[in-house]
Write a structure and sequence with these properties.
Elements (H helix, E strand, L loop, with lengths): L10 H9 L6 H25 L4 H27 L6 H14 L4 H14 L14 E2 H5 L3 H11 L1 H14 L11 H25 L1 H27 L14 H7 L8 H6 L6 H6 L8 H6 L2 H4 L6 H4 L7 E3 L4 E3 L10
Parallel strand pairs: 1-2
Antiparallel strand pairs: 2-3
Helix pairs in contact: 2-3, 3-4, 3-5, 3-10, 8-10, 9-10
């Protein structure tokens, strides 16, 4: 395992590289907002119209609307990192608006996401903003019912079938035990804002039309969003470690994937596939991630995860500390304490 986190020689190298991209371009930010939110609204108008013709046409349009909603979520994500605008107030305003469109409360989600960035790949600090993953030893210590529950949770049909919708519709609305009064207030305001927005939309087009459009759009977007997040940290050659060996640079580059997607999907997903660079420097706006990757060999040396190779991650459910890799439940047959 690399120990160059203590190396004064290597650290400035990657810090110097990312520093060239660690600032926003207001024109590019506003243009991305325009080419994401405007088409999304236009597609909503088309879907309302399409309900009078055929619901199959509505569902077809919902696929594209969901793609734009994923892109809007990436804008929301960047606003919370302070990488989208120099102004904190403007970032917060745009983040709250885009978060409302994506059914995600700005303050709650970003507090958890900051913790995710600080603890990703750290086996001693799991549990916030990530997909629950147990070590083999931890799994073997569970009761039969707990083992069944974990297997159910990690099954693809639940993890990518039902869980995404539950996360955005239910979990995002609920406070955490650690919430302070301010956190409760922010979440209450976010929920109230969403209720008002939904109410106004229903008043304008009717509750039936709203549900027929919003449910498929949100479901498709949430499933793809959770899949992206999953592949970013759950893949065949991912590196995790205990706190004493945790290394910021190594975990960023080897504990976060370079998910290589076709250009059209890269566009809709706001370049979030360059996740190894994003974790190295969250201050880089999403539209500069491809440039950073293409202009620096150190990032190109990272082995990409492709769509086909990402499918292998579906069978990875446990962390094997002996071999230092994610494994499936089949590995339990050969495991000896």
């Amino acid at each position: 395992m690399s120990t160059d986190n203590n190396s004064t020689k290597s650290s400035p190298t990657w810090m110097e590289i990312v520093s060239k991209y660690n600032f926003s371009d207001p024109l590019r930010s506003w243009w991305q907002i325009a080419n994401s939110i405007v088409p999304y609204i236009l597609l909503w108008v088309l879907m309302v119209w399409s309900l009078k013709i055929s619901y199959f046409l509505t569902l077809f349009l919902s696929i594209f609307a969901a793609g734009f909603l994923v892109r809007i979520f990436i804008i929301f994500h960047d606003c919370g990192h302070g990488s989208y605008f120099k102004s904190k107030l403007l970032s917060r305003i745009i983040g709250i608006i885009t978060g409302m469109l994506a059914f995600t409360p700005y303050h709650k989600w970003h507090n958890e996401h900051q913790e995710h960035h600080a603890t990703v790949g750290n086996l001693d600090k799991r549990g916030v903003g990530d997909v629950k993953t147990l070590t083999i030893e931890e799994f073997l210590e569970l009761s039969p019912w707990q083992k069944f529950s974990y297997r159910f949770y990690r099954h693809p049909l639940f993890l990518f079938g039902l869980a995404p919708f539950l996360v955005f519709v239910l979990q995002n609305r609920l406070p955490r035990k650690s919430f302070k009064i301010k956190d409760h207030a922010y979440l209450a305001l976010a929920n109230l804002g969403l209720i008002v927005a939904i109410g106004l939309t229903i008043w304008a087009i009717g509750w039936k039309a709203y549900l027929l459009i919003q449910i498929p759009v949100l479901y498709i977007a949430s499933v793809h969003g959770i899949w992206l997040f999953y592949v970013q940290h759950q893949y065949e050659h991912v590196v995790w470690s205990r706190a004493k060996d945790w290394n910021y640079k190594e975990i960023a580059l080897e504990g976060s994937s370079y998910f290589k997607l076709p250009k059209i999907l890269q566009w809709f997903t706001g370049n979030i596939g360059f996740h190894h660079i994003h974790h190295l420097s969250p201050k880089i706006p999403n539209y500069k991630l491809p440039e950073c990757h293409e202009e620096n060999q150190v990032f190109q040396d990272i082995k990409p995860v492709t769509f086909l190779s990402s499918l292998k991650s579906l069978k990875l459910r446990l962390w094997d500390e002996k071999s230092g890799k994610l494994v499936g439940f089949k590995a339990l047959r050969f495991y000896t304490r």
